[in-house]
Amino acid sequence: MAHKITDACLACGTCVPECPVDAISEGDPIYIIDADKCTDCGACAEACPAEAITKA
Q1: Which residues are 53's β-sheet partners?
Q2: Domains of the chain in sequence order
Q3: Angle at the Cα of 31 (from 40 to 2), degrees rounded to 5?
């Protein structure tokens, strides 16, 4: 199951370089995770300062 970025996202970009499969991209107004690419590793959730990334 892929991770999801919630509305608590600050759009800081901290999560982007943490994703080993480049599943995170800039959205409008918050970042989004491509569920088809996400491997559920959790690296993005650990890096998020706003704790805005959860399991979908």
Answers
A1: 5
A2: 1-56 (3.30.70.20)
A3: 20
Give me 21's structure tokens. 């499969």
* Tens digit of pLDDT at every position of the chain (56 positions): 899 999 999 999 999 999 999 999 999 999 999 999 999 999 999 999 999 999 98
Distance CA 6, CA 33 (A): 10
**In the block, residue with structure tokens 């994703």:** 19
The overall pTM is greater than 0.70: yes
Which token pair is 56?
A: 């979908």
The helix/strand/coil state of 32 is strand
Strand pairing class (32-33; 53-55): unpaired
Phi, psi of 43, deg, nearest 5: -60, -40
